């Protein structure tokens, strides 16, 4: 009876046809090439694995304790032919695996533009890839179509046999953009842009999701991907444009807040430059973009002008947007100083502010702005307008006997 117990599991095999092996039966050319690479690698490794497993069973059976006829040769220690087989076969397999891995890594580079849409079918001349800007949120997906001026949430569509170029970023934690039927997964990271080139070859309804755990709503971070013919895709675009919603910056900031199980949303129009603002983490009005900050660094770094410009750089996601995390004044950590030391530091800081204010009010304060490559501030009208507010920040009365509550 014990030997017959495993037979009770046979009815469960009837459920296996309900499992869809989408990775091994993809609908996109890139995913199909990745499948072929996977199968080829497995086949090469099985050339060694299968003989080893078979010989393990053979030796265990042949040299069992009850087999008294087994030949035992304790003095045998070397065979040139056997050594050649043992070392040459794995070496050849490793060389083959390295070759196909190296070529596959370059041919299937997600940043590499497609030169074919299917096996034996090159990309036609004059065909521009469909650009889709992807934003991974907590916990939903935003897709922006710059060519059509529309956007969707948790729904993606593309025409069959047209190359797709994804530009991918994230608003919070790192995520992973993955449509198994289309192509391999690629990460989405805040403040960074990753790219993925792919193509869908077969109409149908497919599933996309995040392949990287990102918090409470991760399990519902899924979206529908529609592979459509040209007429069907045009009809889908027209349906999105028929919606009255518009994705401006205020709407985006509300959408960015964490939410779960978000239904499909269509936006008939999108603010120009919204994706670039998301990528540069400056959707909020008045916040400096990362690209502007890097331009300042490229021109020489922090002079007085750059100090003034970098005030709104703090990127606190859901509170104190555009403000310093600990306020605009000096702050002290009580864990590394005593109350008396903190009070002395406050007095010293007030004295320094008074000295700096006096220096800046004597003559043209902008003449002393430093920074390699920066234009002379006296020639910039914007600085002349912003200098008074910058000076006033340092000329405010400083109370030397202020209590240590700022610590």
Annotation keywords:
alpha+beta; 35% helix; extended; 6-stranded mixed sheet
How many β strands by DSSP?
15
Structural class by SSE content? alpha+beta
What average pLDDT do the residues reach? 80
Residues in β-strands, percent: 15-25%
Count of DSSP-assigned helices: 9
Low-confidence stretches: 318-328, 331-335, 380-407
Determine the fraction of residues in helical runs and give it as a percent range.
25-40%
- Shape estimate: extended
N-to-C CA distance: 76 Å
Strand order of the largest sheet: 10-7-3-4-5-14
N-to-C SSE string, H for helix and E for strand: HHEEEEEEEEEEEEHEHEEHHHHH
Rounded to the nearest angstrom, the radius of gyration is: 32 Å
Largest sheet: 6 strands, mixed
Task: Give an overview of the whole structure.
The protein is an alpha+beta fold and 407 residues long. The chain has nine helices and 15 strands. Helix 1 runs antiparallel to helix 2 (80-107).
